[in-house]
Amino acid sequence: MPDTASPGPTRRPAQPSGGAILAVEDLTVAFGGLKALDGVSLSIAAGEITGLIGPNGSGKSTLVNTVSGQLPVRGGRIRLHGGDVTGRRPDRIVRAGMARTYQIPRVPPTLTVEEVLSVPLLYAGRDRHRLPGLGDAAAIAAFCGLGPLFRRFCGDLSVTDLRRLEIARALACAPDLLLLDEAMAGLSHEDSVEVMGLIRNVHEQGISIVIIEHLMRVITSLCHRVVVLNNGRLLAEGAPATVLADQAVREAYLGKGFAA
Amino acid sequence: MKTGLTRLLPYVLILLATLALVWIDKPFWIQLAIGVAITAITALAWDILSRTGQVSLGSAAFFGIGSYTLAIFEPLIGLALAWIAVVVVCALAATLLGLLTLRLRRMYFAIATLGFALSMQVLVVVFPDWTGGSGGIAPPVLADGDPRWQLGLIGLLLLAAVALSDALLGLRFRPAFFMIRTKPELAAASGVPVVRMKIFAFIVSGVLIGLAGACYGGLYGYVVPTDVFTTNWSVLPLAIATLGGMDTTIGPLLGAIALKALEEVARSVIGGTGYQVVYGAVIILFVIGMPQGIVGLLRKAAALAGRRTAAGEKKKERERHA
Amino acid sequence: METTLLAQSLLLALTTAGLYAAIASGLTLEFGVTGIINFAHGEFVMLGAFLTYFLYETAGVPPLAGMLLAGLAMTALSWLVFDGFLSRVLKQDEHNQILATIGLSILLINLAMIAWTPDARVMHAPPLLPPLQLGDVIVPGNNLVVLLVGIALYAGMIWFMRHTRQGLLLRLAADDPQLAVLAGVDVTRMFRLSFLIGGLTAGVSGGLVALILYVQPLVGVDLVMRAFAIVALGGLGSIGGALIGAVLLSAAENLTATFVPGGGSWGYGVAFVIIVLVLVVRPTGLFGSERRA
Fold first, then answer.
1. pLDDT 10s digits, A121-159
2. Burial B295-306 (b: 16+ CB within 10 A, else e)
3. 20 to 30 A from B90, CA-CA: which of A79, A189, C128, C266?
4. ipTM reported for the complex surpasses 0.90
5. Which chains lie within 8 Å of chain B at 3 or more CB pairs, if any?
6. Residue to test with chain A: of B186, B197, B200, B246, most A Cβ within 10 A
7. What is the value of pTM for the model shown?
8. Chain B residues with at least one Cβ partner in A under 8 Å
9. Where in the sequence is the domain holding B118, given as residue range(s)?
């Protein structure tokens, strides 16, 4: 069971990483004249849980939206498993093995949990990559704690359950790399603990994870590594304790860093 | 939950109704049924498209393109190939319109499709050598003018439309369509090729409407642009599907029947002019009182009945375990 | 000779542009604030036209006064319509909203047909102003009136939006409804206000229509289509864009009708082609913003 009381890292030992699963090289994303990402280069190690943090407007969401194919690239490259996926459509990137969640998951209220999960199962084209035991909608739902809600309409789900559903949906894409966009936002303490446990379980299945988070206790307890963005640029990266103690990082947050 | 029986119901009803009407052979009822069938087909087609979030006011474009394509190509390549041409031309037009309006959202989409439909009228008038201009054009008459065969053929097309609508409400398509409607990014993030699906829905919808239009033109062997390309044929499918109940197959069918019945009653009471006032009145009443349509009303009634028995069951359960 | 024809055509275009701008600005205001496209807007114009016509023909009410009364009457009707059923549609899906105003349009058109027959009537009002002569070009007096009143309506709306407190609140409700709610603005009241103003401009525009066009239950349909084209050109929600759109559309229509053989019968169709072209190239119109769509 996830250890919630202690503030220190409680992660499992890192999987032997064969290198970077995702790498961005000199990535620039701009909206008109405004550069949301300015020549960012970083790599995400395979088999780890990497935290992506930074103050508001630092480019975290932009980075996730860009590597998942939703935003156009002004300059630079994106590599998944070493292959160039720059400019690919979002559904093709899912096919290549990267899935993401949405912070505000707007699912059609008239669909059931089962039906939502059926979509990636039918369309993601990842049948060869499916983990045994996570091969069908019911198994995935159960894994994410949605077993009893399998036939429930999404319009009847609580916020926490919708979050689980989002993670389940992304899991149903059988990804090698999972990007989680603020999965804890707005959750109660107990609920966020449960979701953190779920994230750990996902990682134990061998899936690399990147999580955008504001809650530092989540970062410190879940992540092997942390990447810090500020003003569209890479500010720092390394082990959580090191990064969070970094002076520049603290200054970027103007002292708001350790909100829990 | 849809049992096997309820799924077969529309097919059985249509088959029985068509056979009965052909056998009874009363012209008034056959004409009525033809009218219902044609509008039902356009409504089903409209609903299919709207499931992807594309709320179209451009049905008239395909309705007219269908009848005009048949009329233009029949003397050139013969009847059979002309019908195939209807399918091909409508598919192409649907692909074009779908791509043009891809990035338009909601109300902008509706207006653009409306503009497209009305632009067709301009096109027809501007190329009178091909289209007969505002004077109209003469498509080949359907089934040599025999109303019973006409009803039979149109009934078959309706069955095809029902089958398509059903198929697209299955697990393979319905969740993906709804996701595209609610949040296309989520669909894409689940591996759905969003653009392809939207165009696919457009093509299915456009071809069905075009075939219905070609049948309509073939009823009397004569169409004018001020009939087939009017806003009427764009509004009617929307109204029928919405009043009957969207996202279902039975909804557009019920809506078509209900609206036709309403029209006949209104016509006899009010006369030839202005009887469509009932359309307006009914639409407004529906929007206020029954926004989920007839199907929604039926579902609520069923739920009430179900709740009563379920509540009764729960009570019995508790008493048993006490 | 060609230049005279051109000048005459363009000048006439300008006068109708004033009318179109007045009609379109009401439509675009309603959409900008509420997000609803009022397909029945043309019918309010039509009813205003009928009212002005009957007031003149049966009671001798001078057209300008009649227009004003028509405007007030349509304001009242808008109030009724909004509180009666449009307000309930605000929270519903887009297809229900489209259906609601289309239903209203069908209702009003057919009521008019039942009451007054589908026949077209022409208001035989004497010119309210002397004709304007610029060289070889003549602009009839009533066209001048239409231009002036149309511009006045339009300018009045711009002034209202920019220089009154209500106008400011309207713009706030349009641009940022959430902020408006936080600021304590009664958003429903703002929605209603936008429809009241829309009704007012529609009613007065109806009087203008009676003055230089004809009076007939279906007259609103073509006009509202043009209004859509203008709003698409100028950008939904942009009142400033509506004038430019109106000028462009009027010019395109009149030039087509004048110079293209047989163009008179389909000159109006230019509107529709424009709608499609503009929306495809610039999905939010020439001057619109990424707002509610």
1. 999 999 888 888 888 999 999 999 999 999 999 999 998
2. bbeeeeeeeeee
3. C266
4. no
5. A, C
6. B186
7. 0.88
8. 171-172, 174-176, 178-179, 181-183, 185-194, 247
9. 4-230
